[in-house]
Structures are given as structure tokens and as C-alpha cells.
Amino acid sequence: MNHELEETSIEGPASIPGWGSLEFSRRLGLQALGATALAGGIASLSSATLAAAATKSHVIKIGYVTPSTGALADFAGPDKYVLSLIRASSYFKNGITIGGTKYSIQIITADSQSNPSIASQVTTQLIQKNGVDIIVTSSAPETTVPVSAVCEAAGVPCLSTVCPWEAWYSGLGGTLSAQGAATSGAFKYCSMFFFGVPEFVECFLPMWNRVQASTGANKVFGGMFPNDADGNAFRGAFPPIVTAMSGGKYSFVDGGAYTDLSSDYSSMISTFKNGKCDFFVNCPLPPDFNTFWKQASQQGYKPKLATVAKVMLFPTDVYALGALSNNIATDAWFTPYAPYKSSLTGMTGYQFAANYQKKTGQQWVQSMGSTYSLFEVVIQALKTVKNPHDRKAVAHALQHVNYVGMSGPLNFAAKTNPAPGVGIIKPVGIQWKPGTTATVGHKKWSWSPYVVDNTLNKHVPLTGALRPTNA
Amino acid sequence: MIWVNVLIQGILIGGFYALFACGLSLMFGVMKVINLAHGDIAVVAGYVAVFLAPQLHIPEVWSFIIVVPIFAVAGYLIQRTLIQKSIDRDPFTTLLVTFGFSVVIENLLLEIYTANGQSVNIGALIGDSIHVSNVIYISYISLAVLVTAVVVLAALQLFLSKSGTGRLIRAVADDREAAQLSGANYRHIFGIAAAIAFATVALAGIAYGMMTEFAPTSGGVNLLFAFESVVIGGIGSLWGTLIGGVLLGIAQQVGAHINPEYQVLAGNLLFLVILGVRPHGLFGKKTAFS
Q1: Whether residues A414 and A432 fall in one domain
Q2: Which of A78, A308, B83, B221 is exposed most, by the fewest CB atoms within 10 A?
Q3: Is the pLDDT of residue A44 over 70?
Q4: Are residues A123 and A227 in the same domain?
Q5: Distances from the Cα of B87 to the Cαs of A86, A392, B32, B79, B194, in angstroms?
């Protein structure tokens, strides 16, 4: 009971975007720590002995924890392809010379099964059994928070991505102010790169402004925020940031804290219709957006622009929704169109995505870029240390990497970063439209994402025109 | 006007609940089996519609033409083997077996089709509706589901009361031993009832797939609403199941209209009240399906 009280007493809107709230991620962190507390005594003991043995080893072992199966499996879709490229690159193939000694690099992957407790278990195993030197992980607080928590406790350098930084930071026990700024310091062993709630607003707001100017739409946005950790956090944080950034231009209509997996959204749809909400934002579970959007169309709610978070990131959701996906906007942290190259091989983002489509027959997805960059960042860090088995030095190096690679310029030590050890990449606005042969690799898919707004990252060229979701 | 819309949308979603609950009601009424895999069977129907129909060059809208017969046959076979075996032991075994069946189905679907969301794609029809007024829109798909529910339940009621097989089903449901003494092969009759139940749940699964996006684990969500519809309407009454579904839908809409937070809660409250005031449901009878 005390436990509950403690958690709910966190003040302020726990500015949490996409996938997970402060409260939720704190739980994940605590859960993960609980799991290691059992195995953890052994972890610290054996890590000491392993570390002693490892200092003499000429192998650098990198553990990669990823949700290969389960609800988050979409994120891990390109893993195999990305790892094959990484393993073929020269440092991984031929080894890396550090302090005059040549080391070979080994990557060991582990499946989190999209389950926080499994994520912490496999991380503990990677540390104890495999004696890894570094752990990298990706995809949602459900993966990154428990993995990072175990690493922080066991003293293993850890790098995460694809998780709103607020959820990750607070999940690891960091504190946030009411405005969503970090108020505690760096973690000893953990670092991450991605973005947070302010970037969601910065990404969506310019699109609203443009559509508002061209259509004279009502300056009202409707929010479909469920009664879950994500939804409540979004409800708390998103509207105030919009007000601050737009100078109060847009007013907010709350669709109500509905229960996840509801089968009917008629009342919310009437609320949005009555409020004349020409803009629409959300952070639902994918099936709920599917239901909602079909019913909205049936019942005549046609917002001028829908900017969605947490859904429509991957083609799966888009194909399931079919024709109604047209011109729905969301964020993208990797697109093949940016002039970014691999820092390992010089391969361009375009080749990277086009070859993926050729090799696997699957449509490119945005998580491939961030997964690739995990390993780029590790190499950058290793280049600056004297001993790759010196965990403190490696963790410190990871927190100070500053380079340009597949995800663009990425500086973990920039003054503008929201928290120490948190690198920020800037998303752009995309819209889903019918595919053409002009997209990546000249392969036509039924639906493709087009970059329609690059206010946040001018490096990424526009590939399509921003159109109202409903004319 | 807004309350008229609340009522209409409630009835429409209620039609879906009733269609979904029909098979559950039948299996519970006849075999006294609470099929915990009911929702998962519906999800399987959705997958069959999405993946098999295009291979046979049938538009997904018409997929029920092949899916429903397949499920009827599957229902008969599963009843005669798996479920009958557990009925022969004791009622708790049927609970465990259907629960296990549910877990197996979910994991198999996950293994074969991954966790990706799927939807039965019916093209532009999904977004269309009858525009009654600025407040009231009646979607074609919801209306079609409601009509299907009414037709299916009416046909089934007629079948049970008029046909020879229907009478046998009722006889077996009432008193298995007595029916057996009179020469009825109750195992075969159970099989027929299960075939009908599986056929209707296949219909509901396809409808569900059209209305939303499903994944291997989507089955459990609607099982609760189906169960509530059966209990509200009364066990052993198919018309009751229809009324139960519709009342549940209306209760949820009224709750949601007050505050979306109360949508599910309002339905559950109605269920609790009915359970408290009339434990055998609104139309529950001593003799099933009479």
C-alpha cells in the first residue's frame, strides 16, 4: 500500500510520450530491480570474477536485448538484417585496436519477448553467463527500462533507444520537474538516444499550423487519450506544451479517459464533433485506433488533420486500416531520404533501406535506423577508451559520444540535451499515402510514408506534400 | 436527439454482442459447457478470413461463405473429441480444457501469424453510413451485423422449436439421461449444437475483424461481453441473449455518454444488478430453449 502511495505521489504531469508513463516505467524499473535483487547478489559477485577474467580477454562482447517476439515484435523486424550488416562491417569482422591491443567483437542477442520481467532476466543472463562488456537495447519502456535498470545495478555499460527519454529516465529512478525537465543527474552506467514529449509537439504543431492556414480549420484539437499510463501522462503533458509553444493558439477538447480495448467510441466521436475539433491527436493501443478511426468515418467525424502517436509507426497498422489510412500523419525518427550515412561503412540510409526491401521482401521500417546506430555509438565510444573492459570508462565514453551516423548528428554531451547521457534525435512529420515507384528502391507498396514536414530536422528532404487528412 | 443517437448506437453494438454471444449461449444451454476458448475461436475465424479468402480468390467481404462451413465441421469434430472427453469426466474439466484450448490457440496464432494486427478489409464500405441527421449516423457494417444477429437468432429459435433435430437438442438439453433412454444419441446431438455454435462464432469473428483490428490475443476482450449478454438475457433463451446484448450495448453507451470512463463500468453494473435481482436472467427458463 505504501508502495502505491509512493508511486502516485510523483508530482506534475509525468511528461510521457509514446510508450509509457513515469509511474509505469518506475514500476518497470522497480520490477526489474526486484528481479535482479534475487539474482543480483550473484550478478555482482560473478560480475566481479568475470570482470577479472574479462580484463585479460581479447574479445569484446556486446549483448543486444530486443523484443523479437510478442506485441513489440514489429520494432525488431529488421534486427536480423541490421545485425548482418553490422557483423560484416570492418570493426566487427576484423576487430578493433584499442591501446595497442587487437580485440575481436562479438554480438549476442537475447529476446525480451516484449515482457519486462523476461527482459531483465535475459539481461542478467547476458551479464552472468556470457560476461558481456556492453549491453545495447531497443524498443519501448517495456524493454529499455528493465534492461537499463539491471545494467545500472550490475555496473555494466548500457545504451538504449526507441523509448521516450522521460519514460526511460524516470523509469530508472531519475526525477522530472512538473515541466518535464530532468532534475537529477546522470546514471553511472546508462545512456540513451531518442526524443520526448516536447519533440512530439514540435513535430505535430507545424503541420497543424500549415493545414490551419490552408483550410481555415478551427483551432481546436481533440485528444483521444485512454485511461492508462500513457494516456493519462499524455493528457497531462501534451496540451500545456501545445499552449506554451503556440502561444495559446489552439484549445483542447478531451475525449475522455476511455478504457483500453473498448468496442465503441460513439460518445467520444460526438464530443469531438460538437467541439468542432479540426485537429486530432492520440496515443492509443493500435486496435483501438483502428476501431475509433473506422467509427469516426462512419459517424461523420472528419478532422482536417490527424497527428497520431504510438500508432501508424509501422506498415502493419496502416495495412490493417486500409483506405482510411490516407493522409494520417505521425512522427518518424528514421527515413531513408536523409543524407545520413553509416559511420561504419559509409552506406547511405537510402541503400540501407532499399537493400532491406530487396533482401527480405519486407517494407522498410523506421526502427532499422535506430537499431543500426546503437552499434555505431558503441564503436565511437570504444575508440575513445584505453581498455574496453574498463566498465566505468566505457560507460563514461558512451555518455560523451558525439558523431554523425545513420541517425544523423548525435551528441550525448550537448548542452541542449534534456538530461545527462541522453542524446536527442529530431523526428520529422510523415503522412501515409498510396505508394509509388518513386519511393525507396523504386518498389511500389500499397502504402508508404512520405516526409511532409521537416521543421524539426531540415536535413531530411520533403518527399510529399502535406495534405489535410480529410478535405 | 443526442439520446436517440445513444440508444441507436447502443442497439447497434448490442447486435454485435448478441451475435458473439449466440454460440456461447447455445453451448452453455445444451452441453452446460462454458467455452473459455469462445473468443479465440472467433479470432481464428478472422485469421482464416484474412489469409484463406484471398487465396481462394474470394473477396474478404464474402469470406464467411467458406469460413462458416469450415467452422461448423470443426465445431462438430472438436465437440466429439476434445470437449466430449472432458464432459465425460466432470464440469470442471471442461473449464480447464477450454481454457487450455484458448491458450494453445493464442500461441499457435502468434507462432504462425506473428503479433501483427490484422483486419478483414472490406474496402470503402467500412467508412460509409446512412446519414439520418447531423447527430445520427447508422454505419452499414454495424447495421449489417445487427440484422445478421437477429436473423441468426430467429432462425436458430425456429430451428430449435420446429425441426426434429431442434427438438432433439432441446430434449438432450433438458434431460440427457431421459433422452438417451428414448434412443437419442446425445453425443451426436452435442456435436450438432457445437457445429451451430462454432458457425455463429465464426460469423461474429469475421464481423469483429471488419469492425476493428485483431491480434492473436484479442479473443478475451469480447468473451466477457458475450458472457454478460448471456447472463443478462438468461441462460437457455436465445431471444434473451439478443435482448441481453442490446441492453448491455445501451448501458455502455449511456455510461459513455455521461463520461467515457464509465462505458465498460455501466455495462458491468447492469450485469451485477441483473445477477442480483434475477439470477437466472431476464428470460431464463427452467427448461432450456422451450
Answers
A1: no
A2: B221
A3: no
A4: no
A5: 56, 63, 9, 10, 13
Q: Which domain covers residue A216, as residue numbers?
A: 199-332+428-453
pTM of the model: 0.86
Q: What is the pLDDT at residue A7?
A: 34
Number of structural domains (chain A) is 2
The answer to whether the CB atoms of B260 and A322 lie below 8 A apart is: no
How confident is the model over B209-218, as a mean pLDDT?
Answer: 91
Distance CA B214, CA B264 (A): 19
Does A458 fall in a domain?
A: no
Helix axes A22-54, A116-128, angle to 10 degrees: 10
Best residue in A66, A293, A298 to probe B by mutation, most B CBs within 10 Å?
A298
Q: Identify residue B186 by its one-letter amino acid code.
A: Y
Q: Which residues pair with B99 in a beta bridge?
A: none
* Helix and strand totals (H; E) in chain A: 16, 16
What CATH number is associated with residue A270?
Answer: 3.40.50.2300
- The pLDDT assigned to A182 comes to 82
Indicate if A79 and A217 belong to the same structural domain. no
Q: Which parts of A218-258 are beta strand (E)?
A: 220-224, 251-254
Please state the separation of Cα A224 from the chain's center in Å.
Answer: 21
Out of A256, A264, A266, the one facing B259 most closely (by C-beta) is A256
Q: What is the mean pLDDT of chain B?
A: 92
Mean pLDDT over B99-124 rounds to 89
The answer to whether the beta carbons of residues A157 and A391 sit under 8 Å apart is yes
Does the interface predicted TM-score (ipTM) exceed 0.85?
A: yes
Distance from chain centroid for Cα A257: 24
pLDDT at A167: 84
Q: Residue B137 and residue A299: Cβ atoms within 8 Å?
A: yes
Q: Is the pLDDT of residue A429 over 90?
A: yes
**Residue B252 CB contacts under 8 Å (≥ 6 apart), including other chains:** A264, B10, B13, B263, B264, B266, B267
Burial profile A58-96: b = 16 or more Cβ within 10 angstroms, e = fewer: eebbbbbbbbbbbbbbbbbbbbebbbebbeebebbeebb
A379 shares its domain with A396? yes
Contacts of A415 (CB under 8 A, 6+ apart): none
A115–chain B Cβ distance below 8 A for any pair = no
**Residue A347 CB-density burial (10 A; 0-12 exposed, 13-18 middle, 19+ buried):** middle
Say yes or no to pLDDT of A6 above 50.
no
Q: Which three cell numbers stand for residue B218?
A: 484479442
For strand A96-98 and strand A101-111, is the pairing parallel, antiparallel, or unpaired? antiparallel
What pLDDT is recorded for position B289?
66
Nearest-Cα distance to chain B for A218, in Å, is 18
Does residue A471 lie in a domain region? no
pLDDT at A35: 47
Nearest to A166 by CA among A189, A205, A199: A199
CATH number of B2-277: 1.10.3470
